[in-house]
Amino acid sequence: MCMVGYVTWASLGEVGCFLEGECMHSRHTRVMGAIGAGMLMVALAGCGGEHTNGGPTSPARTTAASSSSVTGGGAPRYASDSGGAEADGRTEGLPPENEALKAPDKADYLGISYPTDQGAQAAAKYFFDAMYYGYATGDSSPFKGISDQKTCDKCSQVSDEIDRWRGDHRFLTPPTLTFDAVDRLPDREQYGGKTPVALKFTRGKTDEFDKGDKGKSFTPMTYEAALLLTWQDDKWVVSNASWEKISAQ
User: Fold this and answer.
1) Mean pLDDT of the residues in the chain
2) Residue 70 CA, distance from chain mean position
3) How many helices (H) and strands (E) does the chain have?
4) b vs e for 195-222, b when ≥16 Cβ sit within 10 Å of the residue's Cβ?
5) Contacts of 139 (CB under 8 A, 6+ apart)
6) What angle, rounded to 10 degrees, do the helices at 153-168 and 117-137 form?
7) Euclidean distance between the first and final Cα of the chain, in Å?
8) Fewer beta carbons under 10 A from the terminal one: N or C of the chain?
9) What is the rounded CA–CA span in Å between residue 230 and residue 36?
């Protein structure tokens, strides 16, 4: 029996509210905002993920935590109705800023290749960078490579949505992602040997585009996140993840 039902629903069940800032279950979200990352981790360890509908997490251009190129690029173009995406897994018709984005390079994440606390923290940053890169370009492969699509429901939901957006020629402009804090939390029995990491980050302004037409604009937002990571096959993998907004900028 899950003893933190509200916490689990708020932290794992509202992917569709990540950018919007408006949720049907806002009462639960307010409870989570007060409880913080510690209870986010309790939700991950005690109850697992919940399935959700819709809504993106925004792609981002990161600060000193990691680097992505955002210069250059070519003229936008669009695929035919039967196409949907380029052979390399990117959305067609991207503007120069998005087109120039490069996938996160693990070489830029100090310690990520080692089974240490520093490595787990670096992998947590990479996880969000890869997610945001996916929404900006349609390329979900880096995000799928850092996350366990079988054990992390939220991860598989994000991957599926990035792939759908690629087919729909839909994307978000790349905002800045700033990591305000990244902490390796103490081990607990309920984590099952997985490594807990908590993050606080701020996502800059971003705009949604659909086939070249501008849609919604999303103001900067600060989030708290909790990840459980596993060292397997000589690399870090996110086994479960949760995040939620805590304040608008």
Assistant:
1) 74
2) 19
3) 7, 8
4) bbbbbbbbbbebebbeeeeeeeebeebe
5) 88, 89, 90, 103, 133, 162, 166
6) 30
7) 38
8) N
9) 23
Block residue for tokens 């304040």: 247
Write phi, then psi, for 217 (nearest 5 degrees). -110, 140
Q: What is the pLDDT averaged over residues 42-61?
A: 46
- Distant-in-sequence, close-in-space partners of 182: CB < 8 Å, separation ≥ 6: 65, 121, 124, 125, 197, 198, 199
- The residue behind tokens 């908590």 is 198
Tokens standing for residue 133: 């890169």
Alpha carbons within 13 angstroms on the beta-carbon side of residue 106 total 16
pLDDT in tens, 197-221: 999 999 999 999 998 889 899 999 9
Residue 185, token pair as written in the block: 């939390």
Which pair of tokens denotes residue 121?
């923290």
pLDDT, tens only, 58-92: 444 444 333 332 222 233 333 333 233 343 589 98
- Spatial separation of the C-alpha atoms in residues 43 and 241, rounded to whole Å: 10
pTM greater than 0.70: yes
| Burial of residue 183 (number of CB atoms within 10 Å: 0-12, 13-18, 19+) | middle
